[in-house]
Design a protein that fits this description.
Elements (H helix, E strand, L loop, with lengths): L4 H11 L4 E7 L1 H4 L8 E7 L5 H11 E8 L4 E7 L5 E7 L1 H12 L11 H7 L2 E5 L3 H9 L5 H11 L10 H10 L3 H22 L10 H7 L8 H14 L3 H19 L7
Parallel strand pairs: 2-5
Antiparallel strand pairs: 1-2, 1-6, 3-4, 4-5
Helix pairs in contact: 1-3, 4-6, 7-9, 8-9, 9-11, 11-12
Length: 272
C-alpha cells in the first residue's frame, strides 16, 4: 500500500500514545479511488482525550500548516503535510461511539434523513493502520454483514414521503420558496431533496452510501439500478435551481414519477 512517508511517520507517533486504541486510513486513499486533489483521512480511535499539546507536537513534525481542534462536525485537526503539501484530516473518535452508531443502523435498522449508511461505509472500508487490542478488527468483522432488508425498507419509508408525498416535503417547500423569490431556500431544499433521493437509490441497490462526493460517477461506475434519464433529470434540476426557474418543479415531478416505477419494479413501492 502506497502511503505518504509523512503520514506513516505521523501514524507511528500517534500509535505510541497510551490514549490511542487504533488508527484507520479512510476515504479515497483506502478505497484506491484517490486523485491528485485527494486528502488523507486519518481516524484515531482513543479511549480518552489526547491532550492538545501532544497533538500539536506530533502534527508540527509532519505538517506545514495545521488547524487544531476544529469541532464543526467531529473533533479533528486539519492541515497540510510538509511533503507535497497534501491535505490531511485527523479525526478523533471513540470506539464505543462508533459501535453504538452502527448498532443503531444495522441491528435496530433505524434510518436517517439522507446519508443513512455513510458511517457504515466509512468504517468497514477503512484500512487498519494500528490496532492495539484488536478492537478495530473485531468491529469491522462484526459489521461486515449483508445489507439488512428491514433497513432498506426503513430508509425508503423515512425519506420517500419527504420528496413530495406529505405537507412538509421538499417539493412543497421549494414551491413556496419560488413563490416568495426566496432563492436561498430553494437551493437549500434542493440539496435536502437530493440527500433523501440518493439515500433511497443506494438503499434500493443495497450499496453503502459513499457520501456526498462523486455520486453520479459512483452510480455509473457501479452500474446501479436507477430510473430512466435519472442523470438528465438531476442535471436539469441543478440547472433550473441556478436560474430559479419554476421548471424545476416539473423536473422534480419527473424524477419522483420515474422513481415510483423503479420502486414498484423492485417490489418496494411506497404510497404512504
Amino acid at each position: 500500500m502506497n502511503i505518504n512517508a509523512n503520514v506513516r511517520s505521523l501514524v507511528n507517533d500517534f500509535s505510541k500514545l497510551k490514549e490511542v486504541d487504533g488508527i484507520l486510513l479512510s476515504g479515497s486513499h483506502a478505497t484506491k479511488t484517490n486523485d491528485k486533489d485527494s486528502d488523507y483521512d486519518i481516524y484515531i480511535y482513543n479511549s480518552k482525550e489526547i491532550p492538545l499539546e501532544t497533538r500539536k507536537i506530533i502534527t508540527d513534525k509532519y505538517c506545514s500548516y495545521m488547524e487544531l481542534n476544529n469541532t464543526f462536525w467531529e473533533t479533528e485537526d486539519d492541515g497540510f503535510l510538509k511533503e507535497g503539501n497534501i491535505p490531511v484530516e485527523i479525526i478523533y473518535r471513540d470506539l464505543a461511539w462508533i459501535d453504538g452508531l452502527l448498532n443503531r443502523i444495522l441491528v435496530k435498522c433505524e434510518a436517517d434523513i439522507g446519508y443513512t449508511t455513510c458511517f457504515w461505509a466509512n468504517f468497514i472500508n477503512s484500512i487498519i493502520l494500528y490496532d492495539k487490542n484488536g478492537d478495530l478488527d473485531k468491529l469491522q468483522k462484526k459489521y461486515k454483514i449483508g445489507y439488512p432488508y428491514e433497513l432498506k425498507q426503513n430508509i425508503i419509508k423515512k425519506n420517500y414521503p419527504l420528496l413530495k408525498l406529505q405537507m412538509p416535503s421538499y417539493y412543497y417547500q421549494i414551491e413556496k420558496a419560488l413563490n416568495r423569490d426566496d432563492f436561498i431556500s430553494v437551493n437549500h431544499r434542493v440539496a435536502a431533496l437530493f440527500a433523501s433521493y440518493f439515500d433511497i437509490i443506494f438503499a434500493v441497490n443495497e450499496m453503502l452510501h459513499p457520501g456526498e462526493k462523486k455520486i453520479l460517477k459512483i452510480i455509473k461506475d457501479n452500474n446501479l439500478k436507477v430510473q430512466t434519464d435519472m442523470e438528465i433529470n438531476v442535471n436539469n434540476i441543478l440547472k433550473y435551481t441556478a436560474s430559479n426557474n419554476v421548471a424545476i418543479l416539473l423536473e422534480i415531478d419527473l424524477l419522483i414519477g420515474k422513481l415510483d416505477i423503479l420502486l414498484k419494479n423492485e417490489g418496494l413501492a411506497y404510497g404512504g
